[in-house]
Amino acid sequence: MANTQPIATILNQQKIVLLDGALATELETHGCVLNDALWSARVLLENPELIYQVHYDYFKAGADVATTASYQATVAGFINRGMTEKEAIDLIKQTVILAKQARDDFWQVNESQRPKPFVAASIGPYGAFLADGSEYVGNYGVSDEQLVDFHRQRMQVLVEAGADMFAFETIPSFQEARVLSELVKEFPTMTAWLSFSIKNATEISDGTSLTKCAMAFEANEQISAIGVNCAPTTSVTQAIQVLHGVTQKPIIVYPNSGETYHPETKTWDGCETGESFDQLSVEWVRAGAKIIGGCCRTTPQDILALANKWRN
């Protein structure tokens, strides 16, 4: 049986929930080529043991959470690669199985040292499936029904595989967030965090204010945390302050390393932020964040620094 309130469980035992860091860009450091519409989901096909290893490395560094490799893993995407529906479903389930195995293997030798980590099933936005950069804009031009049809099956598969909760992440669209917030009600044993991509510190990618987003989902008890990810570190403190002013939910932040992603070429440039995540996290916690980790281009070393700051 999945832990239906994993975030609350850990916050009852420690001040901060520590997320993992980047999966896809960490896989690249292991030699994986991810310039592909499937992104990290491609590794499920070619080298799944590396996904296990990255999850394990983050647990070892101090993460309380493994976020599954299902961000861009969809039935439609795998069928486009020539798979049957059953093969696609089995592969999506594998994202949870790999994360749970890494967690259980880690926990077997670290059980008494800290709260038991949990597995969050990543639900990336519709735009991630399109792989055309629209996940950073959010104006898809599709109906609510199309979004429901796109997300429902994957959510069902991830629940069946035994995920502890959902991670609705890098959501650029208020419409899509609203759809996901309603869809989670079809899975009454599950909770979810809801994390937006942003165009600046006060607006999500489609231009909706963060204030409106936080207020809109405040009454949904299955949304157990709200925040931002895949954002520059320079926007994080103000975004937390905006959210903290209007929500009682724990605030979650997991920004990028500081470099800039170009979706049209699927490349990065620029430099990492001059301050380390453990230094920046002091300001984030002071502003009201309760759940902290890293997104693109962050590493187990970043999570280790956070663990040394907040757990020791």
From TrEMBL:
* Hcy-binding domain ranges (all copies): 5-310
Which superkingdom?
Bacteria
**What lineage does UniProt assign to this protein's organism?**
Bacteria, Bacillati, Bacillota, Bacilli, Lactobacillales
One term of GO molecular function: S-adenosylmethionine-homocysteine S-methyltransferase activity
| Cofactor(s) for this UniProt protein | Zn(2+)
Q: Name one GO biological process term.
A: methylation
A Pfam family that the UniProt record links to this protein: S-methyl_trans
InterPro entries attached here? BHMT-like (IPR017226), HCY_dom (IPR003726), HCY_dom_sf (IPR036589), Hcy_S-methyltransferase (IPR051486)
SUPFAM superfamilies xref list: Homocysteine S-methyltransferase (SSF82282)
- Cofactor binding notes: Binds 1 zinc ion per subunit.
Q: What is this protein called?
A: S-methylmethionine:homocysteine methyltransferase
Protein keywords: Metal-binding, Methyltransferase, Transferase, Zinc
Q: Which residues does Zn(2+) bind?
A: 230, 295-296
